[in-house]
Amino acid sequence: MMHSITLNFEDGLTRIIDSLPHETVAETAYRHRLNIPLDCADGACGTCKCFCKTGDYDPGDYIEDALSDEEAEKGYGLACQMRPNTDLVIEILASSAACKVEVQSYSSIVKQVEFLSSEVVKLQVETLEKIDFLPGQYVNIEIPGTGYTRSYSFSNKPGQNLAEFIIRLIPDGVMSSFLRNGINAGQKLRIKGPLGSFYSRDLVRPTLFFAGGTGIAPFLSMLESMKEKGNTLPITLFYGATLAENVVEINRLKAFSEHFPLKMYTCVSGEETKAFAKGYVNQWINKSELAEEDYDIYICGPNAMVEAVKQSLHEHDIHHSNFYLEKFLPSGETMTS
Q1: Could you tell me the residue range of the domain that residue 167 belongs to?
Q2: Which of 2, 14, 106, 174 is 20 to 30 A off residue 236, Cα-Cα?
Q3: Model pTM?
C-alpha cells in the first residue's frame, strides 16, 4: 500500500512524497532524488536518524549504537530501516541545503481577487499540478516585475489545483500595490513552497487556536482539513482584528461547527461594534473559560498579539502539551517557533 511521507527539513522547507509498498523512508526519498543523510543503509551507523512527528511505522532492524531504546520511545527512527504503516510526517535532522533539496516551484494563474474588506483581499490562483502541503504552511509568491517575494499562508485545504491566500493591504506595500493596481484574472504568478513548521498535528486533545488579523488564514486551512478527515475533538478559536470589517470569513468559520465541536470567540480592539466584543483575544484566557487539564495551542498573528497571548497563558497557568506559533510582519514575512 502506498503512503504519503512528509519530510520537514531544519530550515523549514517541506517535501511530500509517495512511498511504494515495502520501501523504507530512505529508499522513497532517494527515488524522489532527495538526498537525506545516509551512510551504511544497514541500521548500524545512525547517520539517517530522524524524528517521526505523526504516523505509524515498522522501525526495522538496527543496533543500539545507532538508535537507543530511549530515542526510539520518543519517536526517533532510522530512515534506512523505517517502513510506513500509515502516512508519516518526519523531521529530517539537517537543512535542505545540506541535503541539496530545492524548494518546489509552481506556475499559477490568477483565478480571482476578492476584497473581503477595504484592507483584506482573498487571492485565488490555479496551478497545473496539485499542491501538497501541511495545513498551516505558507509559500513565497513572486511579485511580477519587482524582483520581490512575499510569504503568505494557504487558507484552503491541500491536494488541489488551487491555492488561496488572505492578504492584508498595507500602505506602500509591494504586494498591496500589485493587488490594488496591477493584478488581473488570468495573469501568471510563480509560487514557491511549501515552507514552515507551523502546521496542524494529529488531534489527540482539546485544541486552542488564537488568530490575529489575517493570521486566520492558516487556521482556515487547518479547519478545512479537519472537516475532511472527520475530526470529532473540540476546537476553540479566538479571533480578533483591529477593525470589525477585517474580521473576515465569519460565515465560513461558523459552518465548521456543523461538522465538529467548534467554539468561537471574536473581538475587535480599535472600535466599538455590536457585532463583536471589544478587546483582545487574550481577554478570554482564564481558568473559567479554559477548564481542561491540557491543551494543544496554536497562535498566529502580529508579534504584539502573539506575545500578549503567550504572557496571558503563562499568567493564568493554562497547561499545554504542545505549543506552536507563527508571527508575521507587515511585509509578508513570517517568524515560526
Answers
A1: 105-195
A2: 14
A3: 0.85
